Amino acid sequence: MSYTLLRSWLSGEKSAKGAKVLVQGITGRYGRLHTELMMSYGTNIVAGVTPGKGGESVNGVPVYNTCKEAVSKHGVDASIVFVPAQNYLNAVREAFEAGIELVVGITERVPVRDTIRSIHIAKQYHGDIIGPNTPGLIMPNDIKIGIMPVQPFLQGDTLVLSRSGTLTYEISNYLRKAGIGIYAALGIGGDPIISTNFIEVLEMARENNRIKLVVLIGEIGGDAEERVAEYIKQIDSRKKMVAYVAGRSAPKEKRMGHAGAIIMGNVGTVESKEKALNDAGVPVAKMPWEVAELAKKML
Questions:
Q1: How many domains does the chain divide into?
Q2: Is residue 258 annotated as part of the catalytic site, yes or no?
Q3: Model confidence over 69-111: pLDDT tens digits?
Q4: How far is residue 257 from each of residues 199, 207, 236, 247, 252, measured CA to CA in Å?
Q5: Per the residue annotation, which of 34, 74, 126, 258 is the catalytic one?
């Protein structure tokens, strides 16, 4: 099996602790803020990139004009992207061309065509993208490449996959209060088209025996949850799963929050997702706090 960096982390083949991370857009407001927060968690931020700002530093982190310069000086495993939407595609291309294996795209409102192009670039260079419009990835006590608060995440054996940033934090906090820890929490992004999807992440983590439970946090719109249900039916998984689908009271044909959270006709409803998951043997919580209750019963 060919291991990308993300697969090696989620499979348990390799530890994420100490991985070298670069921040694209480090000199911007959010880049500066989250560089400091990631570093305070213990993430190994080795460099930043902002064109025209080479030679500066942010929180002691050297800034370069290009990813190629940063990689040649430090060696970089992963990049987190805080650039404006119109610059996202170029930032992704530059990262992969420089030899970076994993890109975490925090950027919101990326044009769909640019997301599709970025996915093709990632495949060309045998890398992975999380996002765009993602809160990122956290593996408690090992690494945080993202914008999530750290308090809700207790180290443990549960994989949390989510289309919603806020619900990732909220439900992880309910799990923490129930004494259930997290192996990794990953936001796949809330856009209609995202890069690494639920099924791809589940496949990466499939052989990791440390992961005992998967918590799937979905929302209205699209068919991602229905496709997960079909995937579960087709594989012999030893992992238990519980789910929550947001948007139970959302009106049809009105976008709710995320660009991908819209019901068109009878497609993308909570009911269709809940039925598909239940048919696959996955219990679905009606309210966020019920996820922890279901999880305790499953473990």
A1: 2
A2: yes
A3: 999 999 999 999 999 999 999 999 999 999 999 999 999 999 9
A4: 23, 34, 35, 10, 13
A5: 258
